[in-house]
Structure formats: structure tokens, C-alpha cells
């Protein structure tokens, strides 16, 4: 009987620890996603402020890079935001499939940890 009670208590403790670990991971994912969303917004604001010709791919890569560095939640947020923006932009802006494809390439490059400066145009102020 005592053995059964000990095994039952041990299993409850183990399950509780696993649940708490899962909650912690979920909380971290949400924090990373929120931070990644902020990184994407910051890159967008900087792009608008810079208003620099041929710099959009750099800001796409930088926003995705910064967000993905936060962890899986940040990478997830960057992918969702990038895909939504490109889906909307391709149907509204009239820039065409080629521009959307190039933007998505820069997004992927940044999310995979590639250096955003690959897309940096000459003359873009060092502030960015």
C-alpha cells in the first residue's frame, strides 16, 4: 500500500513538473513573439524614417534577423508578419510578384541568421 501511495505521489510530482516546464516554455515563446513583433515594427519605422531608395530589402532582413534572434517565438512572429505584409502588399501595391519574391528572400535570409548588411545600400546612414 505504501509503495502504491509513493508511486502515485511521485507520478503527480513528475507530471506537475512537466506541466510547469511546459508553461514556462509557452510563456517564453509568447515573450519572444511579442519582442519579435516589436523588432519588426522598429525595422518598419526605421525604413519609413530613412526613406532611402533601394533600402527596403535591408530593413526586411534586419527586422526578421532581430526578431529571430529572440528565439522560436520571435522567428514565428517575424514569419507571420512578413507573410501577412507580403500577401497584402502583393495584392494592393501593384509592385508585382518579383518584388514580393525578393522581399521574401530578404525576410528568409534574416530569419535564418544571415547578415542583413548583405542588402544594405551604399550611403544608407549608419544610424540604421
TrEMBL record:
Highest taxon of the lineage:
Eukaryota
Keyword Nucleotide-binding carried by entry: no
| SMART domains, alphabetized | SAA (SM00197)
Q: From which residue to which does the signal peptide run?
A: 1-17
Q: Which PANTHER family match?
A: SERUM AMYLOID A (PTHR23424), SERUM AMYLOID A PROTEIN (PTHR23424:SF29)
What this chain does, per the entry, is described as:
Major acute phase reactant. Apolipoprotein of the HDL complex.
Q: Which family does it belong to?
A: Belongs to the SAA family.
The name of this protein is Serum amyloid A protein
Q: Which organism is it from?
A: Furnarius figulus
Upper lineage: Eukaryota, Metazoa, Chordata, Craniata, Vertebrata
